Amino acid sequence: MTFLGMPTTAPRGVGNLRGDESFPAAAHKALQDEQLRRNLGHATTTIRRKSGAVIGELPDWQELREAGSTLKANTMARLPELLDQLEANVTAAGGVVHWAADANEANQIVTDLVKATGHDRVIKVKSMATQEIGLNEALEASGITAVETDLAELIVQLGNDKPSHILVPAIHRNRAEIREIFLREMPGVDPALTDEPAELAGAARRYLRETFLSTKVAVSGANFAVAETGTLAVLESEGNGRMCLTLPETLITVMGIEKLVPTWRDLEVFLQLLPRASTGERMNPYTSMWTGVTPGDGPQNFHLVLLDNGRTAVLADEVGRQALHCIRCSACLNVCPVYERTGGHAYGSVYPGPIGAILSPQLTGVEDNASLPYASSLCGACFDACPVKIDIPSILVHLRNEVPHPRAEKAAFGAVAYTMDHPALYTRAQHAAKLSRHAKKLPPPLNGWTASRDLPEPPSETFRDWWAKR
Ligand code: SF4
């Protein structure tokens, strides 16, 4: 039994876990955007093909998935002791560990740490946790500028936009739009910039190099933390993470408490699963690991902020806690027929797609994201694709049961339950249903159910009638 204190959900009014409108309303708007659907269709098909090819090379892929799933379940069952172990080992290696109960605390801790350095600019390597808590906005409110260094994150930041995919945050932008954003927002950009991908990347590289070399504080997330050694790991593809993690004087890492693995050896499972499931690569291009502080090498001040922000509440739910096993590979997004059509913004949270549909409502409390558990056809493609075997469809159904239901729906199901519990009433209801044999639609207020499907036709003879005759 794991219990880390009073489970509370992520606070309102801070961070990026709640949208301004429900999923159906936001999805309806997104579906009008043909450019978005073209971009999404192209990107998800390409990633699926690449990923499928490299996964097919491994004869033991299913065993690896099983190992990943078991390791995560084991970690969640021992989370308190493993977090203590991590804290002791990070501290012994010269780092400082901070505990943040929620987004407000985490933002305050990071802001105070940056202020204490005397600098007013930080560089960032892409981090879902800091987007979740709205760290950039909190830093800005204190006069500190945060510069995203992942190319897609930079595009999103300069465009004053929100990420729409875990792995490809600017998936909704085409290169003409990116050129326009760079020309408008990037300091020192060449006005003759074209929309050739190599030129766009070159412009970003020039701007970022200058920023890397002149910024003394970095903020990162973490893909994994090893409890037995106190080692943190960041996996990325552009080398910007390596720059952030090695060049500045001070490094501040914000990490969700679920990112732990117990031992160094456990990493071998996840370092095989993650690149194949996410970018479709055999090996991750840049895997940076560090343990505390090393004199004369890399940042000389290291702070680790351990973030709860609703995770303890997720852990307290025996069915839903599997969502904490997620390694943010985005494979579930790339196979989801709903995500492929709506894109990420419709989910209203920094976590889009199937994982967002189960994680966001649990972090915020289901009443604050009540439409997300329904943002799925329950086809099960996400479960098959997930490298750590998270049973997303079962969690969706579980959460649908927890969502506050409309009174009319509750009354209708109450009436059905009562009828089925009373044989005479049930027989009469069956005979009444026969009268509606040729009706294709239900009358109001139930007509929503038959708006896009026909009413199934009741049989001409019920089983009871058939049985009685014999
Ligand atoms: S739920 Fe599974 S497939 Fe989806 S992002 Fe997380 S680890 Fe990847």
UniProtKB/TrEMBL annotation:
Residues 84-293 form the LUD domain. GO terms for molecular function: 4 iron, 4 sulfur cluster binding; metal ion binding. It holds the Pfam family LUD_dom. Residues 401-470 form the Lactate utilization protein B C-terminal domain. One of its GO terms (biological process) is lactate metabolic process. The keyword Electron transport applies. Keywords: 4Fe-4S, Electron transport, Iron, Iron-sulfur, Metal-binding, Repeat, Transport. Signal peptide: none annotated. Residues 323-390 form the 4Fe-4S ferredoxin-type domain. NCBIfam families: LutB/LldF family L-lactate oxidation iron-sulfur protein (TIGR00273). This is Iron-sulfur cluster-binding protein.
